[in-house]
């Protein structure tokens, strides 16, 4: 690459996009990389502030910005996504389906730490829709050493940095607990909320039982639903530390592996997540899910619907941004709480 005075560049090959920015009107290239500069192009180049341009010279030790961005695209690109055409040295990754985006965070940080390059992604662990932008990649200078791009590939490792996990058709069992509901003292307003949230993912509540605060009966109901082939089981209510709240004990007695009892999210601190031996989730939902617009349930449910395992570490990371502000107009998931 060689810098040349614009008036002297006629006949040479432009090695980068030239962008015209008119506020409120346009921000697009007026000339693309590879364009052969003509005499008629000179006034246009000068009008966009280009008194000098970079013209192409062969150099086997470097990549052009578009080639570097393509390497970063390939480092990122996992299942169910595609890349855009290079534009001004940038390539975007686009979702091919609805699902949950996962990001290999440590590897992403390692690549971005190499320098002279960047990958910016959406937050991992949350819902994306078909057509959503997932990430943008670009090389900062116009050219970059091939050796540096090799270091980026090494830092990323053999697996893609990003994947989209499609939502799957699920059948759920719901165990509604509480003496007050079981004996008809109050109306069950919890179960309809669960049904509504499942419907957002085209899932169905295929089994439902209402039980008193009897841990043995709750355990038996959970096991019955699992034996009947339910993909997941939700237990509503009885999740606090009151002596008569028996749901956590009932879930524990199924023999499922407890991932976490408690989460750094408000509303939703008394959330419980467990997995069976065959990795089907059993979830204890605190009472706030019944009356709050958005809770820990909304943050975790997409992963459950896409068969993305949720770990204790995943839940602990929710603390930053884990406070719902109960805005008058809910914009979930496009809010701080929704990451």
UniProtKB/TrEMBL annotation:
InterPro entries: MoaB/Mog-like_dom_sf (IPR036425), MoaB/Mog_dom (IPR001453), MoeA-like (IPR038987). Its cofactor is Mg(2+). Pathway: Cofactor biosynthesis; molybdopterin biosynthesis. Keywords: Magnesium, Metal-binding, Molybdenum, Molybdenum cofactor biosynthesis, Transferase. It catalyses: adenylyl-molybdopterin + molybdate = Mo-molybdopterin + AMP + H(+). Coiled coil: none annotated. Its EC number is 2.10.1.1. Gene3D superfamilies: MoaB/Mog-like domain. Residues 173-306 form the MoaB/Mog domain. It comes from the Bacteria. Belongs to the MoeA family. Catalyzes the insertion of molybdate into adenylated molybdopterin with the concomitant release of AMP. This is Molybdopterin molybdenumtransferase.
């Amino acid at each position: 690459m060689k810098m040349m005075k614009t008036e002297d560049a006629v006949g040479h090959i432009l090695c980068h996009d030239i962008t015209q920015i008119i506020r409120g009107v346009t921000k697009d290239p007026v000339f693309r990389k590879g364009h052969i500069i003509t005499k008629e192009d000179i006034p246009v180049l000068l009008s966009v502030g280009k008194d000098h341009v970079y013209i192409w010279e062969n150099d086997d030790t470097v990549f052009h910005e578009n080639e570097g961005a393509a390497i970063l695209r390939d480092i990122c690109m996992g299942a169910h996504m595609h890349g855009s055409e290079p534009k001004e040295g940038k390539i975007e990754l686009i979702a091919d389906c609805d699902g949950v985006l996962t990001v290999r965070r440590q590897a992403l940080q390692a690549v971005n730490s190499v320098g002279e390059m960047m990958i910016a992604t959406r937050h991992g662990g949350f819902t994306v829709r078909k057509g959503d932008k997932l990430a943008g990649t670009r090389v900062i200078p116009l050219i970059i050493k091939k050796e540096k791009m090799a270091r980026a590939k090494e830092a990323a490792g053999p697996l893609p940095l990003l994947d989209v996990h499609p939502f799957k058709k699920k059948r759920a069992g719901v165990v509604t607990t509480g003496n007050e509901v079981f004996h008809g003292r109050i109306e069950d307003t919890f179960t309809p909320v669960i049904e509504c949230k499942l419907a957002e993912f085209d899932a169905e509540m295929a089994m439902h039982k209402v039980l008193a605060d009897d841990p043995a009966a709750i355990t038996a109901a959970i096991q019955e639903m699992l034996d009947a082939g339910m993909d997941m089981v939700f237990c509503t209510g009885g999740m606090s530390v009151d002596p008569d709240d028996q749901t956590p004990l009932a879930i524990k007695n199924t023999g499922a592996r407890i991932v976490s009892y408690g989460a750094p999210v408000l509303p939703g601190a008394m959330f419980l997540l467990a997995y069976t031996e065959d990795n089907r989730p059993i979830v204890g939902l605190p009472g706030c899910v019944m009356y709050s617009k958005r809770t820990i349930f909304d943050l975790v449910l997409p992963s459950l619907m896409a068969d993305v395992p949720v770990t204790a570490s995943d839940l602990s990371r929710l603390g930053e941004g884990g406070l719902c502000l109960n805005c008058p107009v809910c914009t979930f998931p496009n809010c701080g709480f929704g990451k």
